[in-house]
Structure formats: C-alpha cells, structure tokens
Amino acid sequence: MCPTSSRVKNFFDWKKYFIDMKRKRTKILDLYLRALKKRAGIFVLIAKYERAIADYKKAQNFAFNASDIYDIKINLATVYTHGYSDYEKARKLLQDVMDHINNNPNEPLYLKASNCMGDIELQQGHLKKALKLYKNLMKFFKSAKDLEGIAKIYNDIGIIYQNKGNYDEAFEYFKKNLSISKKIDHKRSIVNAYINIGNIMLHKRELEKALYYYKKVLELAKKIGFKQGIATGFLNLGAIYSNMNLPNKSLTQMKGAFKIFEEIRNKKGMGATAGNIGFLYENSGKLKQAMKFCKISLNNAKEIKNTRGIGWASSIIGDLFWKKGNLQKALEYMKIYLETNSKIDNLDDIGDAHMTIGGILIDMEKYNKALEHLKKAEDVFLKNNNNFFLPQINAYISKIHLRNNNMKNAVIFANKAMEFAELNNDVEQMIVALRALGMVSTLDLKKAKSYFDNASTIARKTNNLTQLAKTLYELSKLIKNKKKRTEYLIEAKEIFRKMGLKLWEKRTVEELKKID
C-alpha cells in the first residue's frame, strides 16, 4: 500500500469515528431532552411549576431542531396559562410559534398552539373567540381520531356553554368528555369531567348528586397527586356545604382550597376562592373580612385580565356596599358586573346584575329605572329558561307597585312570586314570596300576619337570619301592641347589626323611635 492510500484510509477512519461520535452525542442529547420534557410534565402534574419551567428552559438549550424548540415554547405557554394565569407571557410564546410555522393548520404544532390559545381566551372570558378556535380544532382532532384531543375540546366547549348559561347543552358536552376520558383512562380529564358535571348538578340544585361528583373529584385528584384538582375539589365542596347551610364546614373547605392555590401560585383559583370566602364572611355579617377577601379576588382578576372574575368580584363588593347602606358605591360596582358580563354574553349573570341593580334602585326610590332593570332581568331568565331568580324579581316588582299605590298589580306580582317559589321548591325564595304577600295583604291584617308568621317560622327553622330579621321588621308594622312591636324590632335590629346590614339597621332604629 502506498503512503498516500494509507493516509486516505486513516482519513476515512477518523471521519467515520467523528460521524459515529456525533451520532452518539445527538442520541444522548435527544434522550436527555426527552427526559427533561418528561420530568417537566410530571412537575406540572404535581403543581411544581417553577421546576417545570426550569426543566423546559434547560431543554430549550439542548434542542437542536425547530420542531423541538417550538414544542417546548408551547409547553411553557401551557404552564404560564394554567399554572400562573400569566396570559400575556403565554400569548407571546404562542404567537412566536404560530408566526414561525406560518399559521399552517396542517402542522401538529399549530393545533397544539391553537388549543392553548383557546384556553387563554376561555380563561379570560372571551367566549366567542374560544368557541371558534375549539370548533376548528375539533375538525382536525376528529379527522386524526385523536381521542384525548376530542375529549378536551368537548370539556372546553361545555365550559363555554356553561358560562353562557346554556346548562343543558353544557351537560351533554361534559358527558361526552367523561365517556371518552374513561375509555382512554385519562385520569386528569376524568377529574375535570367530574368537576364540571358536579357544577351542573349544583346549578340544578341537585345537591346530593353534586356532592357525589365533588367527592369523586377529591378522591381521584388525591390518588394521582393532581394538586389543582384537589384545590378545586375543596372549593366545590365548600360551595355545596354553603348551599346546604353549613357555613363553618364550607369555610374550612374554602380555606383549604385557597391554601393550595396560593401554594401553586394559581391566581385564577386564588381569586375565585377568595371571592367565595368573602361571600361566606358577608353572609355571617363579618363585612370587614368579606371586603378584604373580595378585594383580593378583584385584584387577582384584574391582574390576569379575567373578565368574568372582575365582574363576579365586583358583584360581591357591590352587595357589601349595599348592605352597608352606601347605595351609590353599590350601584357603581353592580354596573361593572353588568358591563363585564355583557362583554362575554353570560346570560345568567347579566340577568342577576339587572335584578340586583333593580333592588338597589328601589332603595334609592328610583322606581321607574328599577322597573326597567327588573323587566330586563326577567326577559333574560325567561329566555334562558332559568326560573331560579323569578320569585325575587316578582317580589321586587310587587314592592314597586305597592310604593306607587297600585295595589292591584302589587297583589298580582306577589302571587307570581309565590308561584315561582313553589315551582322551584326553594326555602329562601318561599320566605321572599311570603313577605311579598304579607306586604300586599295589609287590608286583611289577619291574613297578612299569617304570611309573615309563616315566613318567620321557616326562617327560624332554616337559621336564615337575614330573612328572619326582614320579616320581623315588616311584621312589626302590622302590630298595634307597642310591647310586641318593640320586641320584634329589637330582635330585628340585633340581627341586622350582627349581619352588618347597616341600611336595614338604620330603618329599624327609625321605627323604634316612632314608638317612643
């Protein structure tokens, strides 16, 4: 062999060696990259988001092709969306990915990015944008027979319809999600399905069924170490116990939820839970603590630009000002509640806002404006096939006619309030309707007293102190016996004071002065 050919052979041996080394290095880096992404996914599952982000960012440094880089960016955006509710940072990452792949809907990374973008729109309350994205994605997932993707989209579309107040339609989507999730044994998706079906049961006032699903949420979430699911389970159990008139048990669950959401730095969850805690404190008359948690809720919602959250927190703060007797402030916050929900077309909350504004305007003695809002509320609820608020609306309208000395219409609407209360089979609504009937029956004192007595009996039996005090206040006006009248007013005044109902307390004090 000539020297030249020997050198050529050596050259090719070295070249082969370097190629082999490069391949081995590439394989090792690829395995390392996969391991980092897998570990990051586990950290997301157990809500250790900072460690997940650290692993994803480390993986970016070792990613050597565009596909891996973009996939990691989408994963980071998902963490920022669901973990921290940092929608601006998530949007920036997703937009970068979509721009680089030229918004190609046939590119799997585009679908993954669009899915996350839909989640952002949904969480910020942009329901129309989210629905459009999800329906487009559903076509591709069905075409690819991607059952996990299909299940998620069913869940997300269900949430949109739920937020719009279309509960029956939402329920159908949640059932489809649960069926597919069980078929593929996707446990986190099963947890989400249980949460949402429980929410529908709660709305329908089927409390035992809701309790069943929420307990399954907690059981499964704990089993798989899904912290966000555990926190949501506590939150929803708190809501059930509140509806079952078990405020202390409810508060314990809510505080447990808040602690976990705070630990995993989930601002949306913190905001929702803080609002619920504020609501519980409000109902127990601890208005200072209530305002503190409601402001936490409002600030978190504003920080993450959660439109629905802003509206909901504003509604509770408005209610707190109403109870304190600051009607102008109450009206301001309730108008924010109405405006925010009008943006996202949330029918039930739009109706609730109109109804509450109507109640505030009655206290301000602006009866014509109050009637306008109450009629709008009634139209919304009838359109949405939701009878739950109709007893209160009709009781308010009856009160307006009574104040305007139109006794005929006052009686008609008081009776309508009772019809809907009996249809809904709800205790508090029954008390509201009985009070309305008592107020329009003053020409027949025996009959009026009977209505108020029934209302006070139910209120005492269910420990509904606010309704009890209002009933005693109104009943006192029918009583000629000064001693008995004074007894009713003193008991009502003490309850109003305890519950922080300054406006009603003031009215009661004024009535006591008239007796003196």
Q: What does this molecule look like?
A:
- By secondary structure, the protein is mainly α.
- Helices cover 84% and strands 0% of the residues.
- It has 25 helices and no strands.
- The radius of gyration is 29 Å and the shape is elongated.
Care to give the gist of this entry?
With 516 residues, the protein is mostly helical.
Tell me the layout of helices and strands.
Elements: H1 3-45, H2 49-62, H3 66-82, H4 87-100, H5 108-123, H6 127-143, H7 147-163, H8 167-183, H9 187-203, H10 207-224, H11 227-243, H12 247-263, H13 267-283, H14 287-303, H15 307-324, H16 327-344, H17 347-363, H18 367-383, H19 390-403, H20 407-424, H21 427-439, H22 445-461, H23 465-476, H24 482-499, H25 502-515
Helix pairs in contact: 1-2, 2-3, 3-4, 3-5, 4-5, 5-6, 6-7, 7-8, 7-9, 8-9, 9-10, 9-11, 10-11, 11-12, 11-13, 12-13, 13-14, 13-15, 14-15, 15-16, 15-17, 16-17, 17-18, 17-19, 18-19, 19-20, 19-21, 20-21, 21-22, 21-23, 22-23, 23-24, 24-25
Radius of gyration, taken over Cα atoms and rounded to an integer in Å: 29 Å
Largest sheet: none
Helix content: over 70%
Low-confidence stretches: none
Task: Indicate the mean pLDDT.
Answer: 89
Q: Given the helix and strand composition, which structural class is it?
A: mainly alpha
Which terms would index this structure?
516 residues; mainly alpha; 25 helices; 84% helix
